[in-house]
Amino acid sequence: MKKAGAVLSKAVDRFEVTILVVSTAALAILLIINVIMRNVYRSIHFAEELSRLFIMLITFVGTSYAARKARHIRMGALLELLPTKVEKVLIIIISIISAAIFFILGAIALEYVIVLYQRQTVTSSLRAPYWTFVLIAPIGLFMASFQYVRTVIKNFKEEEVWLSPEQKGEFEDEEVMLEEAKASMTFGSELPKEST
Q1: What whole-number distance in Å separates Cα of residue 34 and Cα of residue 51?
Q2: Cα(149)–Cα(162) distance, integer angstroms
Q3: pTM of this prediction?
Q4: Per-residue model confidence (pLDDT) at position 83
Q5: What gap in Å lies between CA 158 and CA 152, rounded to an integer?
């Protein structure tokens, strides 16, 4: 079960990172080309619509990614000052509330997508079904909700405080880097020699 979870987590990570990288790069390229075309000839008529799609992809996939990697805004300094048990309880409460809010927002977004699908609304320039543009909103919100549920489960299973399913502590990355730097240093082995 753990192996399947690790494989699924890695697949989701690759999916999210790929979407974020491709969308950000495509948005930058599209906007640069559009500026050049505007100065040379005229603007690309579908640039605004595609830009909106890329921004929605970045926003909602990024929301799920931030929840999974604990890269969202939080009061980390305040939580670090509290005793470990209190910090853990607060993380669990915050994660439950966040999961519920993201689930409700996902349900509202899904209802909106269904309405757009039923009305057969299309975009003005590309004449593409608008619901395909907005579909990423409920997917990203439900994925973020799922990540907060995973955080709650992880905190019940483990003794340490987990900020997300994949991030143990606030300064875990910095502590690991500091330990690696200390391990690579050899104090006293290369002292400067006194000149005679």
Answers
A1: 11
A2: 12
A3: 0.78
A4: 84
A5: 10
